[in-house]
Amino acid sequence: MSNLGAFSMWDLFRGEVESQMRVFTEGLLALERGGSPKEHLAATMRAAHSIKGAARIVHLDVAVNLAHVMEDCLVAAQEGTLKLDPAGVDVLLSAGDLLARVATIEESAVPAWVEEQSSTVDRLLIQLNDVRAGKSVAPVDRTALPVPAPPAGPPPASPPKAEVSPVPVPVSPSEPVPPSAPAALNASKAPTHVPRSGASVDRGIKVTTQSLNRLMGLAGESLVQSRWFEPFSDSLLDLKRRHSEINDMLESLQSFAENSPETAVTLEAIRRKVQDTRRWAAEQQTKLDAFGLRSAGLSDRLYREVVASRMRPFGDGVEGFPRLVRDLARQLGKQAQLEIVGTTTEVDREILDRLEAPLNHAIRNSLDHGIERPEVRIAAGKPPTGTIRIEARHRSGLFVLTISDDGRGIDVETLRALVIARGLAAPEMAASFSEAELLEFLFLPGFSTAQAVTDISGRGVGLDAVQEMAKSVGGLATITARPGDGLAIQLELPLTLSVVRTFIAEIGGEPFAFPLTRIASVVKVNRSDLATLEGQQYFSLDGERVGVVSALEVLDLPGKPDWSEQISVVLLGDRATRYGLAVDRFIGEFEMVVRPLDARLGKVPSISAAALMDDGSPVLIVDVEDLARSVETLLHGGRLRGLGRAEAAQVTHKRILVVDDSVTVREVQRSLLQNRGYIVEVAVDGMDGWNALRAGAYDLTITDVDMPRMTGIELVSKIKADPKLHALPVIIVSYKDREEDRMRGLDAGADRYLTKSSFHDETLISAVEELIGLPE
């Protein structure tokens, strides 16, 4: 195994195995689903033969022996003396996995790895010889095949491939997998990784992501600089106009020079000089325009080429999923086919890498909980083979990915009952949830509709991982369900993380960019349409109340808003919770090259990155999630100045936070305490109260017990466990008046436990004064 520098023989072997294993795996899967035996057997046999030759060059006898026996099996199948069954395909795939794994380790570690895996190799050779002889073989325990860490290097970059046709996985209903199946077919031995057998690595050059990002930034700046030629061209046009004015003035002086030959000669010379200057300026403008066009075209091509260098076809990231579906379907005793549409759709390589785990989770959920067993599907009038479909496409500048199946789907009413049973919402609140709102609960961490937990799925982490991935790149995940007819998950993601489509608004005289995927919409609101409830301003949109707050206040910028009768509002949030951010004016949509902020600045509140506008001026890109949390705190905390009103004078009275999901109760407590001179802020539930407590400073908290998202008992426990808040006095005010309820609240750490009948006497006020004293 001699080292030949950047392209050693081991590197060539590694590249050969990576490319041939894609052909080998795809050929076996196509053969198993009923493809042309002659065509696919020939392809897989050639792949095994090529691997054997490459292994012989690097003197890797283990790989030579394995590939040779694999080739023998395929030749026998070509000659018709061997019929490959699913168990035989299992053995061939497992041998291929071992070859793929040995190709990922460093050359220096090969001898030790070969010695360590000698027993596994011997077992595979015996099984391959049994397959060659037509004997029945036991399932392969893939847990005996450890996966070494992949070598450091650039992410895979394969050329675009054709669309992948459906990959049916035939499993005979007459051969179900019993609960006592051997280890390799037991659910606890399910594959936990999708092998990228087809991923090829360009070993000609290695470029770090940081270098690509810097190159992207420079290309973006070059593109901006090229656009600065236009103002210079415009200035030359202005110069031509001034020359014309001077020439007209000279013409007007001609009549005064008729009686003075010397003056006439001088004027004529000046006129010729002006005309020469005009011609010269016109020539220079033509040259400048041509140079500007060439520079802009070159910068644009450079910019697009750098963007393209970060893009990969979607098919590069899903090559291993047909194998995953095949193995899991066999393991579960089901029949399934995987359809992948849009394999040539381009997407940022970083986004593609992040998609692997969410897609893995989504496919597992579909196979385990969505796709029914063949006999169940037939009884329901469906074909015995279920279909999982992954579709990638571009839409409105976004990368849209849909993962769907035709399984049993989700029954909305069953989901509603489950939400109530798990205490996630009170029955009366859950009854008002729409189907879309109920399906959002599937994204909650730890939430699962599974009756039993397996290593395949059922721990409530699958869809949570999907949503977290979408949020991490500034995208959106949604679910649609058809009871008895499947489930669909749709991801709307940016095409690239280096370039973001934004909507720019002016706030305090400065431009701020909002990523388009993170805002709901923008609207113009008449000032007369604003109303006030619980001290908060809002307007009605589509029959819903949308709280609105000044962007100046949220971003803590100086100055006062100066709006006309119409207010420009950027809507943040989703269909469940929307907030309005009032800005100075709308500027428009722009595509911007993202420039990260200097790490020495730390986390800048409500800001995620920066960019340059077309004229070279800097613009800050808003961290919409951080901004939404600030808006929520202001809306629910009662600290709003209001749109167009002067800020109230600073009050130094003691501050109390009232946490209750009932509007009536909050208003009663607010009025009662404000009349005594306290400053009162409110939160709509336990989670909102916890966020407010961490963001602000309070002298006392009053909380209800039964609330969505976080109960009062949980809130008290968090307060008392927090090093900064543990000394904060807490009063629980609840309708529950049983002794065990009172003891439960006091045991959690509450300083007082009162019933809501205390509103009508001095009990609540006395408790407040006893804990924090009179208002100052």
Folded structure, characterized:
By secondary structure, this protein is of the alpha/beta class. 43% of the residues lie in helices and 19% in strands. The protein has 23 helices and 24 strands. The protein has a 6-stranded mixed β-sheet with strand order 1-3-5-6-8-7. A 6-stranded mixed β-sheet has the order 11-15-16-14-13-12. The chain has a 5-stranded mixed β-sheet with strand order 17-9-10-19-18. A hairpin with a 2-residue loop joins β9 (499-507) and β10.
Q: Give me the secondary-structure category.
A: alpha/beta
**Average pLDDT reading:** 76
Give the helix tally: 23
Shape descriptor = flat
Instruction: Supply Rg.
Output: 35 Å
The largest β sheet comes out as: 6 strands, mixed
Annotation, overall tally of beta strands: 24
Fraction in beta strands: 15-25%
Helix content: 40-55%
Strands ordered across the widest β-sheet: 1-3-5-6-8-7
Q: Give the low-pLDDT segments.
A: 1-6, 142-204, 645-651
Task: Give the termini separation.
Answer: 83 Å
Index terms:
776 residues; alpha/beta; six-stranded mixed beta sheet; 43% helix; flat
Lay out the secondary structure.
Blueprint: H1 9-32, H2 37-57, H3 61-79, H4 86-102, H5 110-116, H6 118-132, E1 164-169, H7 209-226, H8 229-253, H9 261-309, E2 311-313, H10 321-332, E3 336-341, E4 346-348, H11 349-370, H12 374-379, E5 386-395, E6 398-405, H13 412-421, H14 427-431, H15 435-439, H16 462-472, E7 476-481, E8 487-494, E9 499-507, E10 510-515, E11 519-526, E12 531-533, E13 536-541, E14 544-550, H17 551-554, E15 566-573, E16 578-583, E17 585-593, E18 607-612, E19 618-622, H18 624-637, E20 655-659, H19 663-674, E21 679-683, H20 686-695, E22 700-703, H21 712-721, E23 730-734, H22 739-748, E24 752-755, H23 763-772
Parallel strand pairs: 3-5, 10-19, 14-16, 20-21, 20-22, 22-23, 23-24
Antiparallel strand pairs: 1-3, 2-4, 5-6, 6-8, 7-8, 9-10, 9-17, 11-15, 12-13, 13-14, 15-16, 18-19
